[in-house]
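Figure 6 in text form: structure in, sequence out.
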């Protein structure tokens, strides 16, 4: 249907014109590497966190169109968010890609919603969540 078509366009746009792709200069950035063991695709995420708020996010890596477009959408979505909201959004996203009901609450999901229900096969959910898992890891490691 039309909504599926629109979502597909949004996904392809993020894949072809990735937002926030590249390296950050800041010295006190958080850097985390994550790979998907089932295919070997990998992502490196760099975050800048100030006063419990994500002020910048960038990524590099190689992978399938879903993993790359998801990283582009994710970095866009979390910029400017408090750390706890970014972690909460990751939970919502995980439900969303699996086609479960999710509670949007007050979070602006934006383009991220284009990935809802995209994963018909459980193994492929890892493609969509790779960047989000990297973000969770970076933020959780930072607390220690
Ligand atoms: Fe390809 Fe979900 S990532 S079907
Ligand atoms: Fe490797 Fe999607 S096939 S991340």
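Output sequence:
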């Amino acid at each position: 249907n039309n909504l599926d078509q629109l979502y597909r366009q949004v996904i392809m746009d993020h894949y072809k014109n990735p937002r926030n792709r590249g390296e950050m200069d800041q010295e006190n950035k958080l850097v985390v590497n994550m790979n998907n063991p089932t295919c070997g695709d990998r992502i490196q995420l760099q975050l800048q966190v100030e006063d419990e708020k994500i002020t910048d996010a960038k990524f590099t890596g190689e992978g399938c169109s879903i993993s790359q477009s998801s990283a582009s959408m994710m970095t866009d979505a979390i910029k400017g968010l408090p750390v706890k909201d970014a972690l909460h959004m990751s939970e919502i996203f995980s439900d969303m890609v699996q086609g479960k009901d999710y509670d949007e609450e007050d979070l602006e999901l934006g383009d991220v919603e284009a990935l809802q229900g995209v994963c018909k096969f459980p193994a492929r959910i890892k493609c969509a969540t790779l960047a989000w898992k990297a973000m969770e890891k970076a933020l959780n490691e930072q607390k220690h």
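Caption detail: Residues 122-142 form the longest helix (21 residues).
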